[in-house]
Design goal:
The N terminus is likely disordered. It is globular, with a radius of gyration of 20 Å. The longest helix has 19 residues. The protein has 2 domains: about 230 residues, Purple Acid Phosphatase, chain A, domain 2 (4-Layer Sandwich); about 90 residues, no CATH class. The chain is of the alpha/beta class and about 350 residues long. The strands form 3 sheets. It has a 6-stranded mixed β-sheet with strand order 4-3-2-11-12-13. α6 crosses α10 and α8 crosses α9.
């Protein structure tokens, strides 16, 4: 059951909704999508309301406008929005590739990256943090569950028993893990690997060996924190390093949906479903495709009742780098519920299968 007093778990809107995938600051794509969904200039559509799956920001051309737009709808009661891992990074104050737009010292621009991304005015920073601090981890109703990255029963149960600000709960779990790491000696072994190979981990041209101790340390921090599981999914040591989001990674994402046996459907974002194999091979460096061979309109998972609606619009900045200005192949999408219809920002419509 949903606890209506919880900030982590909230009831999903009743009635017809349009569930929008990860936007990653691509405000123009959002406006295109809303037009194809039939929303007017004031973002109204009769009885329908909008629900955003999280990851509103980072990498794209205009994260500030995207957050301001969604925030206004949420605060007006006309939309709901989940907390994604990219919003969580802002709450944590952690600089990651693609989120320099948020900080006074823009680390991305310093590194010559994401120069086309609009920066946030310093006066707006506190308001953005206050908004995302109130976003829930889960939205659910009788016929549907929404979570940004993973529905994990154990993590869900731990968090249902929690109260207080999400960032405080996150830090509490992180501090517990830090204590385990200190006592186990894992940190020293990982530090030795970092000393030998750390300088290569952000160089896409130089593949490091699989750094097992670093990988196992990262896996512990990931898997022992239920908020990380819900917002960025379960992970395990990879068979080989792969380059993604600006660094060589030792952990691979896990297809948790192959173990999801509940009858109730789940909608997620986070895991990119590439619209075409060609654009995936052009824009990635060996990153694993969890949906290879699965058409965009198809459900996945053990019971074919999990659906990811992230269609790689977060890579649109890479398309701009190669010269694309309007003819993009990456997409932003939404699912109309209960109609179970996929709508993309180019106007494509497909019934879910």
């Amino acid at each position: 059951m949903v606890d209506p007093t919880s900030t982590l778990f909230q009831p999903l809107f009743d009635g017809p909704i349009d569930i929008v995938g990860d936007i990653h600051g691509e405000f123009a794509a959002l406006q295109d999508l809303l037009r194809h969904l039939g929303y007017d200039a004031e973002c109204r559509h009769g009885r329908r309301r909008l629900v955003f799956i999280g990851d509103l920001c980072d990498r794209g051309a205009d994260s500030p406008a995207t957050i301001a737009f969604v925030r206004a709808l949420v605060e007006d009661g006309r939309a709901q929005c989940l907390l994604g891992n990219h919003e969580l990074n802002l709450l944590r104050g952690v600089a990651k590739e693609g989120n320099g737009w948020f900080f006074a010292e823009n680390h991305d621009v310093h590194e010559g990256k994401y120069r086309e991304s609009r920066a946030l005015a310093e006066a707006a920073r506190a308001g953005v943090l206050a908004f995302i601090a109130r976003l829930p981890l889960v939205l659910e109703r009788a016929d549907l569950r929404l979570v940004h990255a993973a529905w994990d029963d154990a993590a869900i149960q731990l968090l249902r028993d929690c109260s207080g600000p999400v960032i405080d709960i996150y830090k509490g779990y992180s501090n517990r893990v830090a204590g385990i790491v200190k006592e186990s000696g894992m940190a020293a072994r990982a530090a030795a690997e970092w000393e030998s190979h750390g300088a290569r981990l952000r160089d896409p041209q130089t593949r490091p060996p699989l750094l097992e101790h670093l990988g196992r340390l990262d896996a512990l921090y990931q898997m022992a924190n239920p908020i990380r599981i819900l917002t960025s999914g379960p992970e395990a040591l990879s068979a080989a390093p792969f380059f993604a989001a600006g660094k060589w990674r030792m952990l691979d994402r896990v297809r948790w949906w192959d173990r999801y046996l509940d009858e109730k459907p789940v909608m997620i974002g986070h895991y990119w479903r590439w619209p075409t194999d060609a654009i995936r091979s052009e824009l990635t460096r060996g990153e694993h495709d969890l949906f290879a061979g699965l058409p965009l309109q198809c459900w996945h998972g053990a019971r074919r009742n999990v659906y990811c609606l992230d269609f790689a619009v977060g890579a649109r900045h890479k398309e701009r780098q190669r010269g694309a200005l309007t003819a993009f192949e990456t997409r932003l999408g939404a699912v109309r519920w209960p109609e179970r219809e996929l709508v993309l920002d180019d106007g494509t419509r497909r019934a879910l299968e």
